[in-house]
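dumping this here before i forget
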Amino acid sequence: MPTKFNPADCTSRGATVEALIKGRLWFYGPEFLQCTPDYWLSRFEKAEMSSEDLKVFDKPIANVFMVEGGVSAVDYLISYFSCLHRPKKGLGLLP
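structure:
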């Protein structure tokens, strides 16, 4: 998509707050989106894919397996408590 139609480019290129407020792109998107979908289709060229391009999708499916090991007590405590102070207090390590 061309930059002039992409709202994300406003912030990724360092637009100021004033520029975002004055411009409509950030809040409303490109103007052609306010029109009917028939108009959208006429704005962009339709890309045709050759048979060579389509061969990319003819690859065999790969099976992926994941084995998760057990979680250690330390990992469990770190993920369960929001800070180090709480498990220390809970285990009686703090007064």
